[in-house]
Design brief:
By secondary structure, the chain is α+β, with helices and mostly antiparallel strands.
Amino acid sequence: IGQETPLRLARLTAKAPGESVLFPVMGGFSDVRINAYYADAVRWAVSSGVTSGTSSTTFSPDVVCTTGEILTFLWRANGSPTPAESNASVPAGQYYSDAANWALEQGLTDTFHADTPATRADTVTYLWKLAGKPSAKDAVTFADVASGAEYADAVAWAVEQGITSGTGTNQFSPDVTCTRGQIVT
């Protein structure tokens, strides 16, 4: 996964006043423990330049990811291509401006609202469109994803590719928002 990120120890305050505990963290991010399901993904995303932390010592894996962030992550993961033109709906000079314009050109979305939380349905749809809208062998079987839903094919493909397996017994939870840790994973 590129260059190795050093193992660091972070100090947490324990339950007893004045007592502290050391625990292993990844890359100096005090909020990314090395055994977290997203630790390797965070390492890859940071070392690949897809994203950075929210500060020099935090990644904020449990913070909801916005549309501006996820489109920027995808744009960077695809080499940060220069968009052909600027769309009137995308504010100029923002960290996400080129990414949003690229996403609109690629047909990943037809509208853009930077601060809208990224949902599970949005996320698999962006990935599916980037993959060229491939067909899945089997239709979606989640009780909360209607066969005619605009994201149904994306969900079926994401399950087939092992990107997701749903959120529980026969549930996909399409409207649940995604965190930064989930998105980089």
